[in-house]
Please model this.
Amino acid sequence: MNPVQLAVRVLRGDPRTRVSAVLTALGIAVGTALVVLLSTLPNAADARTERSSWQYADRTGAAGTSVSTSDFVRGEQITRVDVAGNPDAPGAPRFPAPGQVLLSPRLAELSGQLPPGDLAERFPGQVVGTITDDYLRYPEQLVAVVGHQPGALDAVEGGSAAYQAAEQDFLLKFLAWVGLVLLAVPSLVLVASASRLTAARRERRLAALRLAGATPGQVVGAVAAETAFAAVAGAALGLLLGWPLRLLVIHVPWGGGTWLAADFTPSLATVAGVGLGVPVLVVAAAVLGLRRVVRAPVGAAMAHRKKAPKAWRLLAIVAAGAFFLFGLATAKDGGNLVVLMASLAGVVLSASVVGPWLTASLGTLFSTLWRRPSTLLAGRRLRDDPKAAYRSASGVVLAVFVGSMALTLLPGFESQSGGGRSFQDSVLYVDVPSAQAQQQRQRITDQLARSGASAVVASATRVTVRTPENSHSALVISCPEAAQVSRMAVGSCAGPPSVRADPSLELSTAGMTVVPTGGYGVSADVPGVPVPAGAPVRPFGGQDPDLVDSVIVDPALVPDVLGSGETTLAVAPASDADRERVRTAMTVAAPGAEINSRELVLGEQRTMLSDLRRVTAIGLVIASVLAGCSAAITAASSVVDRRRTFGALIAAGTPLRVLARALRTEAALPALVATIGAGAGGVAVGFGMLSLFDIEGAISPWVFAPVALGVLVAVLATSASGPMLRRVSAEPFAEE
Model:
């Protein structure tokens, strides 16, 4: 009889083996579906970037000019592309001619719904078509392409839309690889737990075959064939589940919108690699687990006590930590995440190396110090078979690690929210060359008058204030205008022109000079304009903590600085009702310029934080479900593996409640200690990940929640062993 025939006969004749095969196949299916889905996320991000890259490329050439900027309407972001002439833009739709406009479907719908002054008038010209999904980042994206006369955009600088899109793509890819590493391992734990459901029974059967004369090759072939049935069926089912699963995933928003179904289409290489690789790995793991049966069939048949794990396993944590630090350094230097993800996988896998030693140590401690029957039984179990005992907690440990790391990363990212320029939330502003500031201010004022919108227009020239001791960013703006548009508490504007700053800066006008700035850098070759000696320095009152370093200089003190550098035109709407009309007027008056607001900055941050919270919640739910399932299956298999032991204890008069308490104890003890270590490791890894983004993390009280939840899940999962234990008690002891 060949190995395949033997495996088929075992599956037909042994119900327990069939149950184990079905559970193994289901575990492999879940793991395969998750791995395929997560492996398509980086490709999905690339697909978004590829079809929308034309939106973010500012081009200036003989054929024409295109400028990309971000706009905002009713809490939604608009990507606006202003074109003059016919610039070369590979992968873009056909650009409109001067006086023509292209809109995305969602933006065209909004333009028809909102008052013209709130949105439609921002895109002067005739709408000649819509932009199809093939040119959008996501189906709901708001995009406008506005045609202008040649030369109309020559003096305009592009905005930050390209940077924002690239930042979102990098973060998504980063999270995708982290999720692939962290969720693939719990999936493998689930597969291993299911395959161990009848491990002891299989070992005795194979040992009997070896003692009856079967060669090692025949034994290995029988197990490989038996495992291959479940592995191939599970992998095929997982690949099939991936198709409907992606139809659910495309509705999970990221970066402001959902996805196209084609984004999550796995490549043939991915399908082939996962479809072949997963069964091969599962079969290889099953074959490697036969060492004891092949080498010592008598010991396997008699279930001799296994060797205790050695303390050298603790070195795995040291090695994994060193590798992770190396991966962080590599990622910071070159931006390559491959080594970092490999080191993260090493940290996750190190828990499975150290866990059995920790379990054995706990078993020795409790079996030595405790004499309560249930605790003594649990301690003996942990000491005699620590690998099997730790198996029930391994999935929970990984879930706790994932949760602690996620709850360290999330507050770190949230701590970066806020900020923005020093203008009030309702203020809209645009940066222009100082030489054109007066002309642009007049155009905006005239357009506001034509639109009927009521607003205050102020000018603030960006400068650097230098003193003999230090330098500070500052605005040259009059006190009344600063009181109307800025977040700085300027106080009373009565009195002579002055410099205003927070008292903690201890500024003095002695030796103070003001240097105009261009863009975000100080023009070092431009001589500073001295502040008149004796000019007063007045304190702000009730300053916003974000603006402690801000300085205001009255224009009367440094009139020579107003014609150079960069000036911000800040417009404060009289009411919220005028806000969208004011933005429209500014867009028409300054075509191609980036109209910014603190609200826009905070809105982008809220979108990103919402995305992070969403993917964190989804990841934690998946990890918890996988951990709970693997713990429940392992708890049930531990009863199956010890049918003889439990049968003997029951026959000797041991109450079922004592055995049930012993099962809960042996699940809770390693889970409690291991999850504390996993929680600490997750926090440490989270801090390391935050360092990639130059974020200083802080420990949130919520990082302790996964530890408590992990122990609770481990204990509750042991309830799955209750029915199995009652079934053992009802069976004749002679059966085993």
About this structure: Residues 598-641 form the longest helix (44 residues). The CA atoms of residues 1 and 218 lie 10 Å apart.
